[in-house]
Amino acid sequence: MDKVQVVLDNNYRTTINARHHEFYSDSPNEGGKDTASTPEEVLLGALGSCMAMTAKMYANRKGWQLDRVEVTLSLQRFNGKDYATYNGDATFVHEVTEDIRFVGDLDADQLARLKEISHKCPVRRVLANPVFFVEPVLEG
């Protein structure tokens, strides 16, 4: 099970601890000081990292020469009723736009397979499938 601890103790800057690693997040507005990536940027970084690592692991297993992976992601929120291809009742929908480039001595079939495999990374699966939040009951 993956686990992180997040502490906010100064304006909007948070300290995030994962195992023995520490990183930060902050808000560029509303009292934040823009000293670190926003939470949404951290999320996109996790997704892009996972996609790149998944492709690299697959290429290594296949013995393919994958020298570099570049993933550029952007996130945009829309009102659910305004998103042309959405017919559900969610207030908001989110659109992730991706540009992924594989650098190495790879043919067209290998490139297509790496893209397909990158879309099966664990973080993308979390985002693309239902997620349930389990919370303790707060007693007053």
Describe this protein with a few key phrases:
140 residues; 3 helices; globular; alpha+beta; 29% strand; two-stranded antiparallel ribbon
How helix-rich are the residues, as a percent range? Answer: 25-40%
Number of helices: 3
E-strand count: 5
What Rg, in angstroms, do the CA atoms define? 18 Å
Largest sheet: 3 strands, antiparallel
Query: What's the SSE pattern?
Result: EEEHEEHH
The neighbouring-strand order within the major sheet is 1-2-3
Contiguous runs where pLDDT drops below 50 for at least 5 residues: none
- How widely separated are the two ends? 30 Å
Mean pLDDT: 95
How would you describe the shape? globular
Share of β-strand residues: 25-35%
Query: What structural class should be given to the helix and strand makeup?
Result: alpha+beta
